[in-house]
């Protein structure tokens, strides 16, 4: 018997039906002209969703975190100063990854559950090579103002690069890479894009592209080599690098097609209204939201576990009795916060009602 | 209109029907107990196909080449001597990757199309940290004797590690990691395993595991962190690392299930007989095989393009008129060799007849 869950954790979410169809289409080879056309279209669709004209926009062959790794591997040389705004797990992860590539990391810590403070990040170092921050912190459900950060960084120093983690924001809330002036950004497919996990949409500004590390320590994530396959060499020919995950890319193509057919504005509005209903319902149940008011993500709501309630037991009951997956908290909040996602195909009022109803029953409220 | 190809190049091949079914099952979360059971079973099945008891056996979240990268990233420290047997593109790639991680690489070049010479590899350096070689060279269709290499290396120096690229051999010809004494090996899913591209089955001996680099330069491929998720920590708990590509792993689980239901011996015999029929048919057509006799892979046959024939034009005609994909050659043999794969679900006599018939028509033979 196949297990069919309602995936309302921090991702993966249940894919859009179009994405599932794309995944089960006949498989194409990675050098087939039909596939290369599909890849080009996928990258065009990604550009629309990212809000960018960057020619270097593509899905990397790994899950979201591989995008973070590719960003640092291709831009940071040992000794480069990298400022990281940390307000949750994924900021922490940036610190770890940047350090492995030899960066001199200046971390700017914030309380978890709060957005980043642009001025503090700016004041942390006068001339960093790169400033990294998370747009939508998956660990806390908080949105930070990446546009203000990027503008402030570039106003001071045109050569500094700005890196944004958009894993949980892309296709759920507006992302405007070019308008904001973000140089590198990565995402995942398994959240608001509504596709299974396995790819990391990635985009690089021309400025970052031309200042990248010539031969990064990683072969698999060498953007120059990947670019020769995805966009072709200077001479125009496409050169094989690694076997692209063609089924996953066909699914991404289809999922993005669905999003653009519906319209990005409509998709954002659907996330906003589902998230609002969930937040209202949780508060009506007497529960306290974790993320700072005014900075809450509609696609991922964090809620405090009530005193005396066993967090894991509630999650298990939701899973076993209702087939609903919600997420635990992370790090210091592992047992005291739940994370409830209404992402992509699940950004719907019926999903909000389902989890609100089930949670009310389980909590006896 | 969906394009449906017969994928008879060097991979991807058309998936086993069971693998396609697995890919379209309802998606599970990466921390769902149901998924973790499926992951455990997948790793058990991989152990059987690898011929190993290694507890550290798992699918890495990327395509085959990510396995190569993980192997070097987790074992090689700057200055370590690494001997690489090069008899094709994937040996070349090992040299590139090992060098990026700071290895002092000693390469032992062989003619492309020939197997590796164990004694020459052994003589290249008296005390290397690691010796790497490709079991089945995807670029040339040649099998090398990894068992003899591994035994010889370990007889001389018990501490040296042996790394084998099994991307094109696994589940097509016998692979015996433990019997041979291989310490690290990686594969891909898109060839004889008969699953879409996107995962790299990987196995590590306990000896290699315990001598690995404590904090490798890569976060995504840090085997210690990945192991904490896949196998659990010392305390037994599984710790989140990155979001596993759950749809692809469900597909791998199903594809491996199909292979083990059929029986590994039967699967190898099926590859052998389909490959033999293809080789016989090509010779009967007056074509010359490229790989050295006695060392040819049944799952991937390399054939010389006849004088005066335009290699690319023939491939295009096969693709457009017959819907059959075959591969070009690689590097110096790009225009003078074709690569025809009968892998996984395509290791069948009907596929051999289809490509032989189509090729005869196109070549007018």
Automatic annotation (TrEMBL), chains A, B:
KW Transferase (keyword) present: yes
Segments forming domain Aminotransferase class V: 29-329
Cofactor(s) this protein requires: pyridoxal 5'-phosphate
Keywords recorded for this protein, A-Z: Aminotransferase, Pyridoxal phosphate, Transferase
Organism encoding this protein: Haloechinothrix aidingensis
Record: residues binding substrate: 339
The protein's name: Alanine--glyoxylate aminotransferase family protein
Membership in a protein family: Belongs to the class-V pyridoxal-phosphate-dependent aminotransferase family.
UniProt GO MF annotations: alanine-glyoxylate transaminase activity; L-serine-pyruvate transaminase activity
Lineage: Bacteria, Bacillati, Actinomycetota, Actinomycetes, Pseudonocardiales
């Amino acid at each position: 018997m196949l297990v069919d869950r309602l995936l309302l954790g921090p991702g993966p979410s249940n894919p859009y039906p179009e994405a599932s169809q794309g995944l089960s289409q006949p498989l194409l080879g990675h050098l087939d002209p039909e596939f290369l056309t599909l890849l080009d279209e996928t990258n065009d669709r990604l550009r629309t969703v990212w809000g960018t004209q960057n020619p270097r926009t593509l899905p990397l062959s790994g899950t979201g975190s591989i995008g973070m790794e590719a960003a640092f591997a291709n831009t940071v040389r040992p000794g480069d100063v990298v400022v990281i705004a940390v307000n949750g797990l994924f900021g922490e992860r940036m610190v770890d990854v940047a350090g492995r590539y030899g960066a001199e990391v200046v971390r700017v810590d914030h309380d978890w559950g709060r957005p980043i403070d642009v001025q503090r990040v700016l004041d942390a170092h006068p001339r960093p090579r790169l400033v990294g921050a998370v747009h939508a912190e998956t660990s806390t459900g908080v949105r930070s103002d990446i546009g203000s950060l990027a503008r402030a960084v570039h106003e001071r120093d045109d050569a500094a690069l700005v890196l944004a983690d958009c894993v949980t924001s892309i296709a759920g809330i507006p992302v405007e890479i070019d308008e904001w002036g973000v140089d590198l950004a990565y995402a995942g497919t398994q959240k608001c894009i509504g596709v299974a996990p396995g790819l990391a949409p990635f985009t690089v500004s021309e400025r970052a592209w031309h200042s990248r590390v010539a031969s990064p320590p990683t072969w698999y994530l060498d953007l120059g080599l990947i670019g020769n396959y995805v966009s072709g060499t200077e001479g125009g020919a496409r050169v094989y690098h690694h076997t692209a995950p063609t089924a996953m890319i066909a699914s991404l193509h289809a999922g993005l097609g669905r999003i653009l057919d519906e319209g990005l504005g409509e998709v954002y509005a659907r996330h906003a209204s589902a998230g609002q209903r969930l937040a209202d319902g949780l508060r009506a149940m007497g529960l306290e939201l974790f993320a700072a008011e005014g900075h809450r993500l509609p696609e991922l709501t964090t809620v405090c576990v009530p005193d005396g309630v066993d967090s894991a037991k509630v999650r298990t009951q939701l899973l076993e009795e209702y087939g609903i997956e919600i997420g635990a908290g992370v790090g210091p909040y592992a047992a005291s916060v739940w994370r409830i996602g209404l992402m992509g195909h699940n950004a719907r009022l019926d999903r909000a009602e389902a989890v609100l109803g089930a949670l009310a029953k389980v909590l006896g409220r």
